Amino acid sequence: MLRVTNQESKARGSRRFATVRLFTRNKTALFGAAVLLFFIVVALGAPLIATHRPADMDPSLRLNKPNAVYFFGTDRFGRDLYSRVVYGSRISLGVGLSVVASTTILGALLGLLAGYFRSVDEILMRILDGLMAFPGIILMITIMAVLGSNLFNVILALTVVYTPRMARVVRSAVMVQREMTYVEAARAAGAGDLRILLWHIPRNCVAPVIIQATMIFAYSVLSESSLSFLGVGVPPEIPSWGNLLSDGKVFLRRAPWITIFPGLTIAACVLALNTLGDGLRDILDPRIRKKKI
Amino acid sequence: MKQPLLEVDGLSKWFPFGRGFLSRRRGAVQAVSDVSFTVPAGTTFGIVGESGCGKSTLGRAILRLIEPSAGRILLNGKDVTKASRREWLSLRRNMQMIFQDSYASMNPRMRVGSIIQEPLNIHRIGSDGERKERVEFLLKTVGLQPDSLGKYPHEFSGGQRQRIDIARALALNPNLIVCDEPVSALDVSIQSQVINLLNDLQERFSLTYIFISHDLSVIRYISNRVAVMYLGKIVELAGKNDLFSNPLHPYSRALLSAVPHPDPDKVRKRTILEGDVPSPVNPPSGCYFRTRCPQVMPVCREISPELAETAPGHQTACHLIGSRKNC
Question: What ipTM was estimated for this complex?
Answer without folding.
Answer: 0.87
